[in-house]
Amino acid sequence: MAPNLAKSEAAGRSKRAVTRIRSNLHMFGSIKAPIKAKWPRIITPLMLEALSDRLLEKPALSFVS
User: Fold this and answer.
1) In the chain, what's the furthest Cα-to-Cα distance?
2) Organism's domain of life (predicted)?
3) What is the C-alpha to C-alpha distance for residues 22 and 11, in angstroms, rounded to an integer?
4) d(Cα 59, Cα 52) in Å, to the nearest integer?
5) Where are the alpha helices (DSSP H) in the chain?
6) Which residue segment(s) compose the domain that 20 sits in?
7) Is 4 domain-assigned?
8) Quick one: average pLDDT of 7-31?
9) Is residue 7 in a domain?
10) How many distinct structural domains can be found in the chain?
11) How far, in Å, CA of 20 to CA of 23, rounded?
12) Is the Cβ–Cβ distance between 30 and 37 less than 8 Å?
């Protein structure tokens, strides 16, 4: 019997779940993978300052008419 199959029967989980959990433990140190990174939902003061500086350097990038 395959090792994951024996473990899955003992844990009451599917073979696929045991494989995924073992993989996550190996890669991330937890049974759950970290959430995927997303774009920031707000503009931080540092981002706003950088954007303002860039628009001052190149006003043609501005959409304001």
Assistant:
1) 72
2) Eukaryota
3) 13
4) 10
5) 3-11, 15-28, 45-57
6) 15-61
7) no
8) 84
9) no
10) 1
11) 5
12) no
In a domain, residue 10? The reply is no
Separation CA 25–CA 13 (nearest Å): 16
Confidence of residue 23 (pLDDT cuts 50, 70, 90): very high
Tokens of 10: 């003992």
Residue pair 22/29 in contact by the 8 Å Cβ criterion = no
Distances (CA, A) of 56 to 4, 8, 42, 48: 60, 61, 21, 12
Whether residue 20 is contained in a domain is answered as: yes
55-65 pLDDT per residue, tens: 999 888 877 65
List all residues 6 or more positions away from 37 whose beta carbon is below 8 Å from its beta carbon.
none
**Cβ–Cβ < 8 Å for 51, 36:** no
CB count, 10 Å around CB of 18? 19
Determine contact, residues 51/61, Cβ cutoff 8 Å.
Answer: no
- The encoded tokens of residue 58 equal 């190149």
